[in-house]
Structure formats: structure tokens, C-alpha cells
Please model this.
Amino acid sequence: MTQQEIETREIETDAIAPNQARPRMRELTGFNFNAPAELFPSRIKKGRKLTRYRRFDTAAEAIRFAVEEIAPPALLGTYLEVEETRIGTAEIQALYDSAAFPLQRHAASTDCETD
Model:
């Protein structure tokens, strides 16, 4: 291989690597929080409390459970399936944090005090 071929190959690798390292998040506007959802836990067995496959009546309940009940190390690799679409960990958190999330957030509401 010539030096130019090596440099060209390195440039091609640099162009591909970021796209493979970080999958892009989908646009989540119009997400149906009322659709049934299935929670598929990570295969990583960290922490004391292991989460198993679960079905929820609504995606909102599944999202709240994932964020509030599953320990962060165990959440890594967990995904929801809603209307035949997989929702990854980053998207679960983004939906939970969105203004459109219809349920009360238990974790954040316990420390709030007003004078």
C-alpha cells in the first residue's frame, strides 16, 4: 500500500466511525404515550435487583418504570417496544424529560419545596 492509499483509508474510517459509535435519536414528537408497551431489559446483570421482561398498558407507565425503578447500570441496553418501534435508553430518558410526558414524575417531585 502506498502512503496515499493509507491516508485515504484513514479518512474513510474517520468518516464512518462516528456514525457507528453514536446512533442518532429519532424525532419523538407525536409519540403515542397511550399505546401498549413492552420492556426488554438489558442482558447486563449489574446491581442486586434484576428486571425481567414486562408489559405495560401504556408507554408512559413503561417509561416511568424504566427511569424511576431501574438502576442506571441495569438500564443501559434496556429498550421499549411501542407500536413495533424500539425505543432505546437515550430516547426513553428524552421522552421522560419531555413536556409532553403525561404522568407525574415521582423522582423529581420529592425534593421540591415552596415557601
Notes: The mean pLDDT is 75. Residues 23 and 72 are 19 Å apart (CA to CA). The longest helix spans residues 3-21.
